[in-house]
Specification:
15 strands, membrane, 29 helices, mainly alpha, 3-stranded mixed sheet, cell membrane, Clc chloride channel
Length: about 775
């Protein structure tokens, strides 16, 4: 609570010229939070309306009828008020105020650490608390990620059968322990029994196929039903990806409970169930939400972060998380990457053509998916169908299971599908994708081209992959946004990997049957395998993911970290940049930004450009058709009049002025702080009645003996609200909001208050300039 003393002091902000010359965001905040003491300034006395000299004494009524002749007013509210400085749910925080509170706390710690050994120990604890939170967050995130991977793999295989020797083993782990398993048939072992073998006693035939089909659908529906029920009953915030909300929270928006304990627990459990149900979704996006929940929970164990709304968002614990993940080894390959690749053939320059074509496909897919998914989610929100989330999840899960089972590429786990598509064909691979038509004697072609003619298995796999591509595209549109945890990384990568593998096999067969073309003749040696279809799958996966998220460099790094393929950075970058350019031609928003706009969150994207020539007076409120701006005078209001203003309006805060005639600005008071201060004074201070005079000034004038006790609210007043003139270009105003994290800015003309611009006003103005619905921004 010591940091709350900041509200007893004002802090002036420099002009925009100094802010514009700052070289970093830290310098911007430095220039915006210079602490100054207003207790002895002459301007303060003028604002208070006092003509007395600095040495004069002030007299007032003590609330009991007796006058205090020569004592300075020591109001009860000069002490910090519990609850003041906090924020309501679905409101934007004031980054500048939070930064200043933390700096004030840090100054006090540094000033006291030389007083005693105990204070020095407290300062060390404060300095190391950040590392402790990072370590705890990394440990928890890595452990939960590993456990989710292991549990999801086991439950996914449970739809097909069970391991008799150890029920907690999945299919792959079960057959690892078998001595009767060959490498060619490593998925077949006597310890693993399908449901048809357990129930009917037979592994082959129409009856066993129908039984396995039925059990697959049964388990898929059971997992989906349990997941949606847990989310609906215990933690509604556990649904979805979580990344749109996390991006909004990082921008300074408060969503109470979104990073809480219940959300973490339910999201962890239901993420396993949702992935195991076979729905076209992934777990990577929701894992970001899980990690943020861990960081939020651990940060509140330390005073340094529990009283600050901003600092905990800066934590990054990848090193510790990676160490824990490596210890758990959920992938079973002793590596930290999910789709480790090891290609033996380099890529050639002519392959940039199909790589760029995959980028075009990724951009088109991303633009189509964003529009289709947003249209479906908007229909879900605006119709009665959205009132039945359990029915929708069951319906989508049933369609997914029924259609997915006959196709081996849609039946298997999506991560396993991507891994198979990324894998290069070796001599021991038994997949259909590697069933090439080799010569009878097994020797290489003596002349001509690479000996990779496609066999019947490859052609069959191509048809199945084409059907799987159509199925994944359709189901992903309807799945993302369901009331279960649902990520988008893995489904998008699967769609791109399927398309890339198809293109890769096509180019490979062209190189075989037309090896005398100048492209192949120049780059491919006779009898060599110069085309790697798995590489095309990896490039296609990156392209489709880039088309959906509109990420570029970070996406290439993510794909590199997932695969370990450092030497393929150039093909990945070519495809990802192409997908972004093609996608931007249809709309610059990624899927997460589109969902932020759909939900009406006040997210001001730092990458979005504002090039219009409007001025602050064209955006500010009130406008000509609006009622006058609600303001508070510094010493003319009673408690009853102040409560009336609060009850009759819904504004987040009110400018405080000297008088309605002068319109000279004094400060800005938040609605929540005013309400808490009045309730706190009535509860703990005698003599506060409806007719009590309210003062936002430093000192109160002499009052008659029979006057009720006054209420001083100076301590909750922000003495330095950020202001711009009415002729300030909106480009500058938007830049100020982005760099300083403001939630409101006052507009003046020749020092007189004209209006106010909020973050919501800016977002609505930007939407209107982009020919979008400005009313879609619902929160401030």
């Amino acid at each position: 609570m010591e940091s709350e003393q900041l509200y007893h002091r004002g802090y002036c902000r420099n002009s925009y010229n100094s802010i514009a010359s700052a070289s970093s965001d830290e310098e911007l905040l430095d220039g915006a939070g210079v602490i100054m003491d207003f207790h002895t300034t002459e301007d303060d006395n003028l604002l208070d309306g006092d003509a007395a000299s600095p040495g004069s004494n002030y007299a007032m009524s003590n609330g009991g009828g007796a006058a205090s002749s020569t004592t300075h007013l020591l109001d009860f509210l000069e002490e910090p008020i519990p609850g003041v400085g906090t924020y309501d749910d679905f409101h934007t925080i004031d980054w500048v105020r939070e930064k200043c509170k933390d700096r004030e706390r840090h100054r006090k710690i540094n000033s006291k650490k030389k007083e005693s050994a105990w204070e020095f120990t407290k300062s060390l604890y404060d300095a190391w608390s950040g590392w402790l939170v990072v370590t705890l967050t990394g440990l928890a995130s890595g452990a939960l990620a590993g456990l989710i991977d292991i549990a999801a793999d086991w439950m996914n295989d449970l739809k097909e059968g069970v391991c008799l020797s150890a029920m907690w083993f999945n299919h792959e782990q079960c057959c690892w322990t078998s001595n009767e398993t060959t490498f060619a048939e490593r998925d077949k072992c006597p310890q693993w029994k399908s449901w048809a073998e357990l129930i009917l006693g037979q592994a082959e035939g129409p009856g066993s196929y129908i039984m396995n089909y039925f059990m697959y659908i049964y388990w898929a529906l059971s997992f989906a039903f349990l997941a949606v029920c847990l989310v609906k009953v215990f933690a509604p915030y556990a649904c979805g990806s979580g990344i749109p909300e996390i991006k909004t929270i990082l921008s300074g928006f408060i969503i109470r409970g979104y990073l809480g304990k219940w959300t973490l627990m339910i999201k962890t459990i239901t993420l396993v169930l949702a992935v195991a149900s076979g729905l076209s979704l992934g777990k990577e996006g929701p894992l970001v939400h899980v990690a943020c929940c861990c960081g939020n929970i651990f940060s509140y164990l330390f005073p340094k972060y529990s009283k600050n709304e901003t600092l905990w968002r800066s934590f990054f614990a990848a090193l510790v998380a990676a160490f824990v993940l490596r210890s758990i080894n959920p992938f079973g390959n002793s590596r930290l990457v999910l789709f480790y690749v090891e290609y033996h053939t380099p890529w050639y320059l002519f392959e940039l053509i199909p790589f760029i074509l995959l980028g075009v496909f990724g951009g088109l897919w991303g633009a189509f998916f964003i529009r289709a998914n947003i249209a479906w989610c908007r229909r879900r929100k605006s119709t009665r169908f959205g009132k039945f989330p359990v029915l929708e999840v069951i319906l989508v899960a049933a369609i997914t299971a029924v259609v997915a089972f006959p196709n081996p590429y849609t039946r298997q786990n999506t991560s396993e599908l991507i891994k198979e598509l990324f894998t290069d064909c070796g001599p021991l691979e038994s997949s259909q994708l590697c069933q090439y038509r080799l010569q009878m004697n097994g020797s290489k072609a003596s002349e001509g081209g690479p000996n990779r003619p496609a066999g019947p298995g490859v052609y069959s796999a191509m048809w199945q992959l084409c059907l799987a591509l159509i199925f994944k595209i359709i189901m992903t549109i309807f799945t993302f946004g369901l009331k279960v945890p649902s990520g988008l990384f893995i489904p998008s990568m699967a769609i791109g990997a399927i398309a890339g593998r198809i293109v890769g096999i096509a180019v490979e067969q062209l190189a075989y049957y037309h090896h005398d073309w100048f492209l192949f003749k120049e780059w491919c040696e006779v009898g060599a395998d110069c085309i790697t279809p798995g590489l095309y799958a990896m490039v296609g996966a990156a392209a489709c993911l880039g088309g959906v998220t509109r990420m570029t460099v970070s996406l290439v790094v993510i794909v590199f970290e997932l695969t370990g393929g450092l030497e393929y950075i150039v093909p990945l970058m070519a495809a990802v940049m192409t997908s972004k350019w093609v996608g931007d031609a249809f709309g610059r928003e990624g899927i997460y930004e589109a969902h932020i706009r759909l939900n009406g969150y006040p997210f001001l994207d730092a990458k979005e450009e504002f090039t219009h020539t409007t001025l602050a007076r064209e955006v500010m409120r009130p406008r000509r058709s609006d009622p006058p701006l609600a303001v508070l005078t510094q010493d003319d209001l009673t408690v009853e009049e102040l409560q009336s203003v609060i009850n009759e309006t819904s504004y987040n805060g009110f400018p405080v002025i000297v008088s309605k005639e002068s319109q000279r600005l004094v400060g800005f008071a938040l609605r929540r702080d005013i309400t808490i201060a009045i309730e706190n004074a009535r509860r703990k201070q005698e003599g506060i009645v409806l007719s009590s005079r309210v003062y936002f000034t430093q000192h109160a004038p002499t009052l008659p003996a029979d006057s009720p006790r006054p209420l001083k609210l100076r301590s909750i007043l922000d003495m330095s609200p950020f202001t711009v003139t009415d002729h300030t270009p909106m480009e500058i105003v938007v830049d100020i909001f982005r760099k300083l994290g403001l939630r409101q800015c006052l507009v003046t003309h020749n020092g007189r208050l004209l209006g106010i611009i909020t973050k919501k006003d800016i977002l609505r103005h930007m939407a209107q300039m982009a020919n979008q619905d400005p009313e879609s921004i619902m929160f401030n």
